[in-house]
């Protein structure tokens, strides 16, 4: 914490205190002085992350009413509710930077702020529930574990709890797929078909290649980001290949091969034109996801009004 010293210091010292905090790997807290660019970058990143958690409830929520057993339904319901909780922690973290939740929600439903493009792909079979847990939550873990050491305190602390829950999500997905792989040949085909559809979009979750990622350098200098997109993508590939082998599925990439010199797997390039098309709003589900979010927000107006009226009455009674 640099808050108390920041208050007594000359305004001119504040930027150097910020730099020192970053250089010594300490946390910046909401009341500390911070450069406007740092605040803006964090708001953009945290808001995008919060929106992804909330929109990410939809693809799997799609299967809640058609889960194949009560056990699977209970697991999936818990998982989807966890994602709602992640969204709320993150909106709270954004609020400490002065970004109101109502405003961020407006920006999302007006298409002015983004969420992860992975959620603009449809969930066509129940195997997709398993594949999303394994690969999509798995990629999210690779992205988010380093964020537990992010330089902004509230974001880093939120990530610790989120990551614990994400690893449960990944395991439940992998366990579901393992069960299906022990089933009929139709079930095994369903798993492979699902993995074929999700593998490339999962690799795109790490964002564009480093040489086309303009914000990475500054975000790393500020300690907001700890690894580049390509480093994290490589980590994810290296982690996933043995898991696929244990499961008995393959990834749809003829260039995927162990490189003994590098000590990593080589792999092919995702189709970045597809990525850009989905980011720009032309994925299969972009319109539906945002429309559904808008409808849920509008349907919830009476709840927010009632909660505000209740809080106001409580305050009046205390007077
Ligand atoms: Fe999550
Ligand atoms: Fe998750």
TrEMBL record:
Which organism's genome codes for this protein?
Gordonia rhizosphera NBRC 16068
Q: Name one GO molecular function term.
A: phenylacetyl-CoA 1,2-epoxidase activity
Q: Which GO terms describe its cellular component?
A: cytosol
Spell out the coiled coil positions from the record: none
InterPro entries documented for this protein: Aromatic_CoA_ox/epox (IPR052703), Ferritin-like (IPR012347), Ferritin-like_SF (IPR009078), PaaA (IPR011881), PaaA_PaaC (IPR007814)
User: What are the recorded Gene Ontology BP terms?
Assistant: phenylacetate catabolic process
Record field: transmembrane: none
Ranges for the region named Disordered are 1-25
Q: What is this protein called?
A: Phenylacetate-CoA oxygenase subunit PaaG
Q: Quote the Pfam families the UniProt record gives.
A: PaaA_PaaC
